[in-house]
Amino acid sequence: MDWSTFFEVHKDLPREGPGTAEDVVWATGLAGLPEGAVICDAAAGPGADVEVLAQAVPGARVLAFDKQEGFVAQMRARFLDTPDVSVQRADLAETADLPRVPFDMIWCAGALYFLGLEHGLEVMRGALKPGAVLAFSEPCHFTDTPGPEACAFWEGYPTRNRLGIVAAVTAAGYEILGTRDVSDAGWEAYYQPMEARIETLRAQGDARLTDMLDLCAKEAEDWRAVRSETGYLLTVARRVS
Question: Which residues form a coiled coil (predicted)?
Fold first, then answer.
């Protein structure tokens, strides 16, 4: 990945993955968080969900982290005057980097699967208080017979169906509180601003960006072709003990 051209395409986008504020409200409502809850936004990107998490319950405190300096800088600027939000650089894939605060809830939108589902569930479980909640979105096939294009969309990731995800979460020591698909509106909330930026950058005629612009545009096109067969399943689950 050429991160310099990636950030030129993705700089200042409102989101770095599919989802809506309604998803966060739904998940925090199921979580039943206590007043003053300590919440983690893991691999938060530019922090699209941080404000909603901070408003989830009175006195909530949010720690948001991401491994990419560009996103961390965006979050620090965005939440500079928000005392209940702290931002740090950490790599989800490096256990030693992760915050050691025991959390009442971890929100991880579209990133846990980079660890692999089982390992990701184990890592997150270790950062939760007993009885605390993990909410995450995971690649999911919405049909038992996904076509080759739907399978190819996740670039070889061992994508499960809904029952397979629920089974893995339960086996990892969680109680399922609820699941739902990330809506088409959530995907478009990510892709449409990105596509607008792609058009702006194409108009500038910078040839060194062409490959990244084409790659990002194709991702949106590919998702629209397979959206009835595959997408993200948002799962909210409580650590059992």
Answer: none
Please return the burial class of 195, using the count of CB atoms within 10 Å of its CB with bins 0-12, 13-18 and 19+: middle
d(CA 182, CA 142): 11
3-state helix, strand, coil in the chain (%, to 5): 45, 25, 30
Q: What is the pLDDT averaged over residues 196-219?
A: 93
Q: What percent of the chain has pLDDT over 70?
A: 100
Of the CA atoms within 13 Å of residue 123, those in its CB half-sphere come to 22
Per-chain mean pLDDT for the chain: 95
User: Reduced to 3 states, what is the DSSP secondary structure of residue 177?
Assistant: strand
- Residue 128 backbone dihedrals phi, psi, to 5 degrees: -100, 145
**pLDDT interval class at 91 (50, 70, 90):** very high
Q: Which two tokens stand for residue 158?
A: 């061992």
* Structural domains in the chain, sorted by start: 15-184+229-239 (3.40.50.150)
